[in-house]
Amino acid sequence: MAKEWICVECEQDNAADEVECVACEEPRPAASSVSRFAGYKIARVVSVEAIPKTKLRAVKVQVDADGAEGLTIVTSARVDVGETRYIVVATAGSIVSIDGDDIEVKKATVGGRKSEGMVCDSPMLGWKGGAAGAAVFLPNTYTVGDEPPATRP
Prior knowledge:
Blueprint: E1 5-6, E2 13-14, E3 40-50, E4 57-62, E5 70-75, E6 86-91, E7 95-98, E8 101-104, E9 108-110, E10 113-115, E11 117-119, H1 122-125, E12 137-138
Antiparallel strand pairs: 1-2, 3-4, 3-6, 4-5, 6-11, 6-12, 7-8, 9-10
């Protein structure tokens, strides 16, 4: 039984029987052709704002090389601002593995703020080392917008 899917290109929800996205006509990816990091991006931290009366932060990130596309992600992970702060984020429509369960990332309201993805930790990425709940940081030698590396650098 096919299940509903979200277009990685434009984040449109699509019915299970749709073979292409109803919004942008991007073909539905075949299960075998999808990278395990489909929808994951290397992002540069632009700003971090503490959300009052919570332990949450609204993290603004740049997710494309030319700086045109940005996302806001609400997280409890500790994230610092800096030109050299590169993290990995899972955008809406991507699948993350948390404690052995695969979960689809969706846009949501968290702590009263719009959140457009998740900040990734090492276990989500299948990397050795690094703690659950701790954002992974990459050297700025990586390119913003690219998929993360298969192993921890």
